[in-house]
Design goal:
- By secondary structure, this protein is mostly helical.
- A two-stranded antiparallel sheet has the order 1-2.
- A hairpin with a 2-residue loop joins strand 1 and strand 2.
Length: 263
């Protein structure tokens, strides 16, 4: 068993195995589509990504949809981080009211499916507060992910040794000063990996807002398919674009992690 594991861990063998698996998936997809009599039209896909005209580079519908997804996800993540920090501070404040409010908020949000939460914001709260599709989508994603992010903040702060709090108290620091200058700088390296995972999770879950016709990447893909019937090509392309976006984000945050933890 150990010998087999050593062989599988050899880089050349691992890459060859990965390539074989991917080739098998591609072949199975192609063979299945051929049996269905599907007419592949990959040559039509590039124009939905970009075109080169006399005016230069022109982004296609997919790139425009990608930019909308990035703006939507970035706005929702910033708001979710602020809300998550507020909920975590309330829960750790030591106040009975603060802890009660944060626990009710967490249990309420975590136990409502994201799709139902989206319908609540758009169809119920939207008409009451005049929310557009775009603002309802941002608020839904922000509220849903803030509950998860607040737990990441709480776990990161609790991971710092209690002696650090005692040391800050011994030199006359207030609780807020201890958090700002001692606790949070040390807890960032614990928070970054799960926060990255949550950012990737948010980007992927942003596709759900296509059900209320927010013009982001998934909605653009659905619209193109409705016009062209190229289901396989467009969904493969949309999936590849999401994969590229999340991989870039993961690599960027890995560089940040190495900066905070050079060892």
């Amino acid at each position: 068993m150990r010998r087999l594991r050593r062989i599988l861990n050899v880089p050349v063998v691992a890459v060859a195995l990965y390539g074989a698996i991917m080739a098998g998936i591609v072949w199975a997809s192609y063979a299945g589509a051929q049996k269905m009599g599907y007419n592949w039209q990959w040559y039509r896909v590039p124009k939905y990504i970009y075109t080169l005209t006399d005016d230069g580079f022109q982004p296609g519908e997919i790139l425009i949809g990608l930019w909308a997804s990035i703006r939507l996800s970035a706005a929702a993540f910033v708001l979710a981080t602020l809300l998550g920090a507020a909920v975590a501070i309330l829960r750790m404040s030591g106040l009975i009211v603060g802890k009660g409010v944060s626990v009710i908020y967490l249990e309420l949000i975590r136990n409502i499916p994201l799709l139902v939460l989206l319908y609540l914001f758009y169809y119920v709260l939207g008409p009451i507060f005049g929310l557009t599709r775009w603002s309802a989508a941002i608020l839904t994603l922000a509220v849903f992910h803030s509950a998860l992010i607040s737990e990441i903040f709480r776990a990161g702060i609790n991971s710092v040794a209690s002696g650090q709090w005692e040391a800050a108290d011994a030199i006359g620091m207030s609780r807020a000063q201890a958090l700002r200058y001692i606790i949070i700088p040390q807890s960032v390296r614990f928070m970054l990996p799960p926060l990255t995972g949550e950012a990737v999770h948010l980007i992927k879950s942003s596709a759900i807002v296509s059900v209320i016709a927010v013009a982001e990447l998934t909605t653009v893909g659905r619209n193109i398919i409705a016009d062209t019937y190229m289901s396989f090509e467009i969904w493969f392309t949309v999936a590849a674009v999401y994969l590229a976006l999340t991989l870039v984000l993961s690599f960027g945050v890995s560089a940040l992690e190495r900066r905070f933890n050079p060892n």
